[in-house]
Structures are given as C-alpha cells and as structure tokens.
Write a structure and sequence with these properties.
CATH class of the largest domain: Mainly Alpha
Structural class: mainly alpha
CATH superfamily of the largest domain: Winged helix-like DNA-binding domain superfamily/Winged helix DNA-binding domain
Number of domains: 2
Radius of gyration: 21 Å
CATH architecture of the largest domain: Orthogonal Bundle
Strand order of the largest sheet: 1-2
Strand content: 5-15%
Low-confidence stretches: 185-192
Number of helices: 7
Order of helices and strands: HHHEEHHHH
Number of strands: 2
CATH topology of the largest domain: Arc Repressor Mutant, subunit A
Distance between the termini: 50 Å
Helix content: 55-70%
C-alpha cells in the first residue's frame, strides 16, 4: 500500500489508464470528458499533476517522447493495478452527494422574485431533457458494444437520475402554473 494518500482523482487516473492502456494526460482528459465527466466533475489540472504523483508512488510508469512535444505516456504498474483492485473491492460508506446549483437556488428561492422559480424549473426541464437525449444516444451507439457493456450500467444510473430530476422539475412547474406554493417530493407543501 502506498504511504501517500490516494484521492478520488487518483483512482480516476488509475482507472482510466487501466481501461484505456498507455495514455498521456491529454488522452485522459479527452476520455474522461466522454465518459465519467458526465457524472464526476473535477478540475482537469489534476490530470496533469496526478499522473506524475502516481508515477512517483510506483503506481504508474511513464515514457517520454524523445523529440517533438516530449509527451509523457503513463501505464499502470502491477502495484497500481493491485491498488486499484483493492479500492474497487473496499466498501463504500460515503453517502450519495448531489451538488446541484439549481437545487441550491431552489432552497433560497423565497429571498428572490417568485418568477425566478418558474424560470429555474423551465431551464432545468430543458437541461434534463437534453441530457436524457444525450444519454439515450450513447445507449443506442454503445449498448451492443461488448467491451463497453460493463460501463453501460453507469449510464443506466445516470438515466434514472435524469428522469427523476425531470419528474421533479416538471411537477414543480405544474404546481407553480396552478398558482400554489412549491410542493415537496410527495406533493406536500414545502415547509416555510
């Protein structure tokens, strides 16, 4: 076990190199934008510094181009694979986290103009409908690709979450159009 602490970003880097094979930091950035970037947002600057740190820990190895841009290509070491597998097997005791700015604005809505909530609901409906279209398109393109199938389970969870959010915001807009106060998840009036 490495003596330095590993962060979620560490495991993102190890996992992506494990899935893709040898990768530059730029390769990792592009791959993440097309996959876990849909549900796991973090600063991309870490994709340039974290691989070097993991190399120093012996979890990645690197080769550098001898000419041109002198890009570094990282590969997973046996120790890196062991560390990644140990993390995958470890229990996950962290509670689900949702950091949604729209939800934060909704919480403080009574301090703003009443029309803001209706506008927020309509914006969120459009955003969740678009994300559902994107996810469904991904499911159509990659649903039958055998080597991608294990990752499609995550897409299913993403779709469920998008549909739940869409139901919530649609219901809220409907309640607002009816003239009543915002309702809670089971239809009760939100506490005031």
């Amino acid at each position: 076990m490495p003596s330095e602490r590993l962060s979620p970003t560490s495991y993102v880097v190890l996992g992506m190199v494990g899935l893709r094979g040898p990768s530059t930091s730029y390769d990792l950035k592009r791959a993440i934008n097309r996959s876990i970037g849909y549900f796991w947002v973090f600063p991309h600057a870490g994709l340039y510094s974290e691989p070097q740190r993991l190399e120093g820990m012996g979890l990645l190895s690197a080769t550098t181009e001898s000419d041109g841009r002198r890009r570094r290509t990282y590969s997973l070491t046996d120790e890196g694979l062991r560390e990644l597998r140990a993390w995958l097997a470890a229990p996950t005791n962290e509670h689900f986290q949702l950091r949604d700015v729209a939800e934060l604005k909704l919480f403080f809505n009574e301090l703003g103009e009443p029309a803001n909530v209706r506008r927020l609901a309509r914006e969120q409906i459009a955003q969740h409908e678009e994300r559902i279209r994107v996810y469904e398109g991904m499911r159509q393109r990659y649903g039958d690709v055998a080597d991608v199938a294990p990752r499609m389970v995550t897409l299913g969870l993403g779709l469920e979450m998008e549909h739940a959010a869409l139901r919530f915001w649609t219901s809220l807009e409907r309640d607002l159009d009816g003239g009543g106060p915002p309702a809670g998840p089971s239809g009760e009036t939100a506490p005031g």
